[in-house]
């Protein structure tokens, strides 16, 4: 089994800074203090793969930030990471190799570059989630899940299937609009347990009354406790609820409502600065991503482990309309911190608001 490993070293850099993607902004992100995300998550994946493997796996990669820097054991070097990396660098690596499987770390942009470079070749790919946003079905749910998929594929326990590669207009995305389309298809090991599936949009116009009712529920909590700090997560459901309450929230950012004021589109440091000054009760509202079920770790990297611990995981309230809940039997967590992930999973269930004073509990995925 020959496994080709490639990392987009710039993927995910802008997440905690509140960037809506890292394309063309890597230097800006690093200058602002951003740390590597994709590389360390690839290392975590490969460390777990090493623990799982009962037979040797031949790993091929380039030396440097696009591969070798993140590989914990021996590998076969097939080249050197260029001094400056971009989409062409990823395409060059893919075009130069013909392994049994490509394991890559990055986001949606990286996936598009890989699929484009593969052309008609039907080599399966598995994505280690390392970007700001990941809509495509070829990503595993977590770095460790990616290792499980790779090992199960190697041992013949998983078959390969086609999955959708989703494309998002990043320029429009940065302006607060979500426009996604199917870019193409890729081959990936099929695992409903370990692979995340493609993102879907499930909100319907007919649910306006439900959103209004859920907004009234949040308003009533604030009326009962005027000092309650509300941290609004990203997404159309929460944005509409916030609008019903008379506030403007950003579609793709994280906002804070407190004492009648709104603090919009906060990055990690902005969230830490405001939340740390508040000694009263806090509530984090999060809406799961349709089709994937991610509550944390997709499109909301500003909610770093530091931020989540400061808010308190016991203060998380899920928000989901009945239509979204129909296709959701559990939620997924990928905070970027293994210990925090486990702490949340150990709770087994999270509370989900689905109407005025109407909640249900939903299972937290154990994987």
Structure, explained:
- With 367 residues, this protein is an alpha/beta fold.
- The protein has 2 domains: 2-189, Rossmann fold, CATH 3.40.50; 205-364.
- The protein has helices spanning 26-31, 38-52, 87-96, 108-118, 143-154, 170-174, 208-224, 236-244, 268-276, 305-311, 322-326, 338-346, and strands at residues 2-7, 58-63, 76-80, 101-106, 125-129, 160-168, 180-189, 229-232, 255-258, 261-263, 282-286, 294-296, 316-319, 330-333, 349-355, 358-364.
- The strands form 3 sheets. Strands 10-9-8-11-13-15-16-14-12 form a 9-stranded mixed β-sheet, sandwiched between helices. Strands 3-2-1-4-5 form a 5-stranded parallel β-sheet, sandwiched between helices. It has a two-stranded antiparallel ribbon with strand order 6-7.
- Helix 3 packs across helix 4 and helix 7 crosses helix 8 (236-244).
- The longest helix is centred in the middle third of the chain and has 17 residues, at 208-224.
- The two termini are 25 Å apart.
